[in-house]
Protein backbone atom coordinates (compact mmCIF):
# COMPACT_ATOMS: atom_id res chain seq x y z
CA UNK A 1 0.00 0.00 0.00
CA UNK A 2 1.20 3.53 -0.82
CA UNK A 3 2.70 5.14 2.27
CA UNK A 4 0.75 8.33 1.59
CA UNK A 5 -2.57 6.63 2.29
CA UNK A 6 -1.69 3.85 4.72
CA UNK A 7 -2.93 4.40 8.27
CA UNK A 8 -2.17 2.21 11.23
CA UNK A 9 -4.80 -0.03 12.72
CA UNK A 10 -7.02 1.46 15.37
CA UNK A 11 -5.22 1.32 18.69
CA UNK A 12 -6.92 -0.78 21.38
CA UNK A 13 -8.73 1.31 23.95
CA UNK A 14 -6.37 1.41 26.93
CA UNK A 15 -7.58 1.08 30.50
CA UNK A 16 -7.17 4.70 31.52
CA UNK A 17 -9.24 6.27 34.29
CA UNK A 18 -10.58 9.56 32.97
CA UNK A 19 -12.73 10.35 36.00
CA UNK A 20 -10.36 12.90 37.53
CA UNK A 21 -9.02 14.32 34.25
CA UNK A 22 -9.47 18.06 33.75
CA UNK A 23 -10.32 19.05 30.15
CA UNK A 24 -10.71 22.52 28.64
CA UNK A 25 -12.48 22.87 25.29
CA UNK A 26 -11.78 26.22 23.66
CA UNK A 27 -14.46 26.49 21.02
CA UNK A 28 -17.21 23.87 21.42
CA UNK A 29 -18.80 24.44 18.03
CA UNK A 30 -19.52 22.17 15.06
CA UNK A 31 -16.51 19.97 15.78
CA UNK A 32 -15.43 20.94 19.28
CA UNK A 33 -18.90 20.09 20.56
CA UNK A 34 -18.96 16.50 19.24
CA UNK A 35 -15.39 16.00 20.51
CA UNK A 36 -16.44 17.20 23.97
CA UNK A 37 -19.42 14.84 23.90
CA UNK A 38 -17.18 11.94 22.89
CA UNK A 39 -14.83 12.62 25.79
CA UNK A 40 -17.73 12.78 28.24
CA UNK A 41 -19.01 9.41 27.02
CA UNK A 42 -15.47 8.03 27.37
CA UNK A 43 -15.48 8.88 31.08
CA UNK A 44 -14.55 12.54 31.58
CA UNK A 45 -16.83 14.01 34.25
CA UNK A 46 -19.07 16.92 33.29
CA UNK A 47 -17.82 19.06 36.15
CA UNK A 48 -14.26 18.50 34.92
CA UNK A 49 -14.89 19.42 31.28
CA UNK A 50 -14.93 23.20 30.98
CA UNK A 51 -16.23 25.00 27.92
CA UNK A 52 -14.82 28.37 26.89
CA UNK A 53 -16.51 29.80 23.81
CA UNK A 54 -16.37 33.31 22.38
CA UNK A 55 -18.80 34.64 25.00
CA UNK A 56 -20.09 33.53 28.42
CA UNK A 57 -23.58 33.12 26.98
CA UNK A 58 -22.28 30.85 24.22
CA UNK A 59 -20.30 28.82 26.76
CA UNK A 60 -23.42 28.41 28.93
CA UNK A 61 -25.51 27.21 25.98
CA UNK A 62 -22.93 24.69 24.83
CA UNK A 63 -22.31 23.38 28.35
CA UNK A 64 -26.03 22.91 28.95
CA UNK A 65 -26.44 20.89 25.75
CA UNK A 66 -23.36 18.75 26.40
CA UNK A 67 -23.72 18.21 30.14
CA UNK A 68 -20.42 19.98 30.74
CA UNK A 69 -19.46 23.08 32.72
CA UNK A 70 -19.29 26.62 31.38
CA UNK A 71 -16.09 28.45 32.31
CA UNK A 72 -16.43 32.07 33.33
CA UNK A 73 -13.33 32.82 31.27
CA UNK A 74 -10.70 31.11 29.16
CA UNK A 75 -8.22 31.55 32.00
CA UNK A 76 -10.50 29.61 34.35
CA UNK A 77 -10.85 26.78 31.82
CA UNK A 78 -7.08 26.53 31.38
CA UNK A 79 -6.00 26.93 35.00
CA UNK A 80 -6.02 23.23 35.93
CA UNK A 81 -6.51 21.62 32.52
CA UNK A 82 -4.66 18.38 31.86
CA UNK A 83 -5.93 18.41 28.26
CA UNK A 84 -6.75 21.48 26.16
CA UNK A 85 -8.83 21.04 23.00
CA UNK A 86 -8.51 23.80 20.40
CA UNK A 87 -11.83 23.76 18.56
CA UNK A 88 -11.60 27.18 16.91
CA UNK A 89 -11.38 27.84 13.17
CA UNK A 90 -8.05 27.03 11.47
CA UNK A 91 -7.23 30.70 10.86
CA UNK A 92 -7.58 31.35 14.61
CA UNK A 93 -5.49 28.45 15.92
CA UNK A 94 -1.99 29.87 15.79
CA UNK A 95 -2.97 33.21 17.33
CA UNK A 96 -4.81 31.30 20.05
CA UNK A 97 -1.78 29.08 20.67
CA UNK A 98 0.41 32.15 21.14
CA UNK A 99 -2.14 33.58 23.60
CA UNK A 100 -2.08 30.32 25.57
CA UNK A 101 1.67 30.32 26.15
CA UNK A 102 1.42 31.86 29.61
CA UNK A 103 -1.81 30.14 30.63
CA UNK A 104 -1.17 26.46 29.95
CA UNK A 105 -0.78 24.28 33.03
CA UNK A 106 2.52 22.41 33.25
CA UNK A 107 2.37 19.10 31.41
CA UNK A 108 -0.90 19.86 29.62
CA UNK A 109 -1.64 18.08 26.34
CA UNK A 110 -2.89 20.32 23.53
CA UNK A 111 -5.23 18.74 20.96
CA UNK A 112 -5.87 20.75 17.79
CA UNK A 113 -8.89 20.01 15.59
CA UNK A 114 -7.85 22.42 12.84
CA UNK A 115 -7.31 21.22 9.29
CA UNK A 116 -4.28 22.58 7.48
CA UNK A 117 -2.34 23.70 10.57
CA UNK A 118 0.66 21.43 11.11
CA UNK A 119 2.10 20.04 14.31
CA UNK A 120 5.29 22.03 13.73
CA UNK A 121 3.36 25.30 13.43
CA UNK A 122 1.44 24.67 16.65
CA UNK A 123 4.51 23.46 18.53
CA UNK A 124 6.40 26.60 17.48
CA UNK A 125 3.61 28.82 18.82
CA UNK A 126 3.49 27.03 22.19
CA UNK A 127 6.17 26.73 24.88
CA UNK A 128 9.04 24.35 24.08
CA UNK A 129 8.27 20.75 24.96
CA UNK A 130 4.49 21.10 24.89
CA UNK A 131 2.76 17.83 23.99
CA UNK A 132 0.69 18.51 20.86
CA UNK A 133 -1.68 16.16 19.06
CA UNK A 134 -3.67 16.87 15.92
CA UNK A 135 -7.05 15.15 15.77
CA UNK A 136 -9.12 14.97 12.59
CA UNK A 137 -12.60 13.74 13.60
CA UNK A 138 -15.71 13.45 11.49
CA UNK A 139 -19.19 14.40 12.69
CA UNK A 140 -20.56 10.86 13.28
CA UNK A 141 -18.35 10.69 16.38
CA UNK A 142 -21.27 12.49 18.03
CA UNK A 143 -23.20 9.20 17.94
CA UNK A 144 -20.20 6.95 18.55
CA UNK A 145 -19.98 5.84 14.92
CA UNK A 146 -17.31 8.12 13.57
CA UNK A 147 -13.61 8.09 12.82
CA UNK A 148 -10.72 10.13 14.19
CA UNK A 149 -7.24 10.43 12.72
CA UNK A 150 -4.62 11.18 15.38
CA UNK A 151 -1.24 12.74 14.65
CA UNK A 152 1.32 12.62 17.46
CA UNK A 153 3.72 15.47 18.10
CA UNK A 154 7.35 14.93 18.98
CA UNK A 155 6.96 15.75 22.69
CA UNK A 156 4.04 13.37 23.29
CA UNK A 157 4.97 10.53 25.65
CA UNK A 158 3.63 6.99 25.35
CA UNK A 159 1.43 7.59 28.41
CA UNK A 160 0.01 10.75 26.87
CA UNK A 161 -0.56 8.93 23.59
CA UNK A 162 -2.57 6.27 25.46
CA UNK A 163 -4.53 8.97 27.24
CA UNK A 164 -5.53 10.63 23.98
CA UNK A 165 -6.66 7.29 22.58
CA UNK A 166 -8.71 6.74 25.73
CA UNK A 167 -10.39 10.13 25.25
CA UNK A 168 -11.47 9.11 21.75
CA UNK A 169 -12.21 5.47 22.62
CA UNK A 170 -15.98 5.97 22.23
CA UNK A 171 -15.77 7.90 18.96
CA UNK A 172 -16.21 4.77 16.83
CA UNK A 173 -12.68 4.37 15.50
CA UNK A 174 -9.47 6.22 16.34
CA UNK A 175 -6.39 5.57 14.21
CA UNK A 176 -2.84 6.88 14.22
CA UNK A 177 -1.89 8.59 10.97
CA UNK A 178 0.95 10.79 9.74
CA UNK A 179 0.53 14.37 8.64
CA UNK A 180 1.00 13.28 5.02
CA UNK A 181 -1.77 10.71 5.43
CA UNK A 182 -4.18 13.31 6.83
CA UNK A 183 -5.11 14.46 3.32
CA UNK A 184 -6.22 10.97 2.32
CA UNK A 185 -7.96 10.62 5.70
CA UNK A 186 -10.00 13.77 5.05
CA UNK A 187 -11.12 12.38 1.69
CA UNK A 188 -11.87 8.90 3.05
CA UNK A 189 -13.40 9.88 6.40
CA UNK A 190 -13.31 13.57 7.34
CA UNK A 191 -15.39 14.96 4.47
CA UNK A 192 -17.00 11.65 3.54
CA UNK A 193 -20.11 11.96 5.77
CA UNK A 194 -21.28 14.92 3.66
CA UNK A 195 -20.91 12.85 0.50
CA UNK A 196 -22.82 9.96 2.09
CA UNK A 197 -25.55 12.36 3.27
CA UNK A 198 -25.88 13.63 -0.30
CA UNK A 199 -26.22 10.09 -1.66
CA UNK A 200 -28.77 9.17 1.03
CA UNK A 201 -30.74 12.33 0.23
CA UNK A 202 -30.74 11.44 -3.48
CA UNK A 203 -31.89 7.86 -2.79
CA UNK A 204 -34.64 9.09 -0.47
CA UNK A 205 -35.89 11.61 -3.03
CA UNK A 206 -35.98 8.92 -5.69
CA UNK A 207 -37.92 6.64 -3.36
CA UNK A 208 -40.51 9.40 -3.03
CA UNK A 209 -40.60 9.87 -6.80
CA UNK A 210 -41.23 6.15 -7.20
CA UNK A 211 -44.28 6.40 -4.96
CA UNK A 212 -43.22 6.01 -1.31
CA UNK A 213 -44.11 8.38 1.49
CA UNK A 214 -41.05 10.36 2.51
CA UNK A 215 -40.80 9.05 6.06
CA UNK A 216 -40.92 5.44 4.82
CA UNK A 217 -38.40 6.10 2.04
CA UNK A 218 -36.09 7.82 4.53
CA UNK A 219 -36.28 4.96 7.03
CA UNK A 220 -35.71 2.29 4.40
CA UNK A 221 -32.74 4.03 2.82
CA UNK A 222 -31.04 4.81 6.13
CA UNK A 223 -31.56 1.29 7.48
CA UNK A 224 -30.28 -0.30 4.28
CA UNK A 225 -27.17 1.90 4.18
CA UNK A 226 -26.51 1.16 7.84
CA UNK A 227 -27.09 -2.57 7.31
CA UNK A 228 -24.83 -2.74 4.27
CA UNK A 229 -21.96 -1.01 6.11
CA UNK A 230 -22.45 -3.18 9.19
CA UNK A 231 -22.48 -6.33 7.08
CA UNK A 232 -19.15 -5.43 5.48
CA UNK A 233 -17.58 -4.49 8.81
CA UNK A 234 -18.78 -7.55 10.70
CA UNK A 235 -18.14 -10.17 8.02
CA UNK A 236 -14.99 -8.77 6.43
CA UNK A 237 -16.43 -9.57 3.00
CA UNK A 238 -15.02 -7.45 0.15
CA UNK A 239 -17.63 -4.99 -1.22
CA UNK A 240 -17.31 -6.46 -4.72
CA UNK A 241 -18.09 -9.95 -3.38
CA UNK A 242 -21.07 -8.66 -1.40
CA UNK A 243 -22.33 -6.79 -4.46
CA UNK A 244 -22.07 -9.89 -6.64
CA UNK A 245 -23.98 -11.86 -4.02
CA UNK A 246 -27.14 -9.82 -4.66
CA UNK A 247 -26.72 -9.53 -8.44
CA UNK A 248 -28.73 -12.24 -10.23
CA UNK A 249 -28.20 -12.60 -14.00
CA UNK A 250 -30.59 -10.26 -15.79
CA UNK A 251 -32.13 -9.19 -12.49
CA UNK A 252 -33.20 -5.84 -11.08
CA UNK A 253 -29.97 -5.21 -9.21
CA UNK A 254 -27.65 -5.65 -12.19
CA UNK A 255 -29.82 -3.27 -14.19
CA UNK A 256 -29.47 -0.69 -11.42
CA UNK A 257 -25.72 -1.25 -11.18
CA UNK A 258 -25.37 -0.77 -14.93
CA UNK A 259 -27.24 2.53 -14.63
CA UNK A 260 -24.88 3.64 -11.83
CA UNK A 261 -21.88 2.95 -14.06
CA UNK A 262 -23.43 4.77 -17.03
CA UNK A 263 -24.13 7.82 -14.89
CA UNK A 264 -20.57 7.88 -13.56
CA UNK A 265 -21.47 7.54 -9.88
CA UNK A 266 -18.24 5.69 -9.06
CA UNK A 267 -16.14 8.34 -10.81
CA UNK A 268 -18.13 11.12 -9.12
CA UNK A 269 -17.53 9.72 -5.64
CA UNK A 270 -13.82 9.30 -6.37
CA UNK A 271 -13.62 12.86 -7.68
CA UNK A 272 -15.32 14.25 -4.56
CA UNK A 273 -12.87 12.43 -2.27
CA UNK A 274 -9.89 13.50 -4.35
CA UNK A 275 -11.07 17.14 -4.32
CA UNK A 276 -11.38 17.10 -0.52
CA UNK A 277 -7.89 15.62 -0.17
CA UNK A 278 -6.41 18.18 -2.55
CA UNK A 279 -8.10 21.03 -0.70
CA UNK A 280 -6.49 19.73 2.51
CA UNK A 281 -3.08 19.76 0.82
CA UNK A 282 -3.59 23.35 -0.32
CA UNK A 283 -4.64 24.44 3.18
CA UNK A 284 -1.50 22.92 4.69
CA UNK A 285 0.66 24.98 2.34
CA UNK A 286 -0.65 28.12 4.00
**Average of pLDDT:** 93
Q: What is the CATH domain class of the largest domain?
A: Alpha Beta
What is the CA–CA distance across the termini? 28 Å
- Helix/strand order, N-terminal first: EHEHEHEHEHEEHEHHHHHH
Could you tell me the strand content as a percent range?
A: 5-15%
Radius of gyration: 21 Å
Instruction: Give the uncertain stretches in residue-range form.
Output: 1-12
Inertia-based shape: elongated
Q: How many strands, which pairing sense, and closed or not: the largest β-sheet?
A: 8 strands, mixed
- SS summary, helix count: 12
Strand order of the largest sheet: 3-2-1-4-5-6-7-8
Number of strand segments: 8
Total tally of structural domains:
2
CATH architecture of the largest domain: 3-Layer(aba) Sandwich
Q: What structural category do the secondary elements indicate?
A: alpha/beta
Topology, element by element:
Elements (H helix, E strand, L loop, with lengths): L22 E4 L5 H11 L6 E4 L3 H11 L2 E2 L3 H6 L3 E4 L3 H11 L8 E4 L6 H7 L5 E7 L8 E7 L5 H10 L4 E5 L5 H9 L1 H18 L4 H22 L3 H7 L6 H11 L2 H20 L2
Helix pairs in contact: 7-12, 8-9
